[in-house]
Amino acid sequence: MYAVLRTGGKQYRVSPGDQIRIEKTEHQDGALEFSDVLAVSGEEGKFESELSGAKVLASVVSEGRGNKILVFHYKRKKQYKKLQGHRQDFVEVKINEILVNGKSFKAEAK
Length: 110
Fold this sequence. Notes:
Blueprint: E1 2-7, E2 10-14, E3 19-23, E4 31-34, E5 37-41, E6 55-65, E7 69-75, E8 80-86, E9 89-100, E10 103-106
Antiparallel strand pairs: 1-2, 1-5, 3-9, 4-6, 6-9, 7-8, 9-10
């Protein structure tokens, strides 16, 4: 069982129980709801045809910033060099439940 959702300009393939890092988004009390679901598959090779009310429910595990990426601009023969660093903010979420067509798929308890 998996779903493909879109958030932060990227697409993620998630299953109940997965933990993923997404772009920083607003959340209330550590709960997130993704309604932009592109595809849902209950079994291998078969997809749900109707996705009008499909949702993915998740909970926030942690927030943070990624590794530093160095951006270096250089123009030869012009004495121009520029070095800039960047750290992207992220939210790590755990996928709890996938809802589609009145069916609910939850993470298995361990």
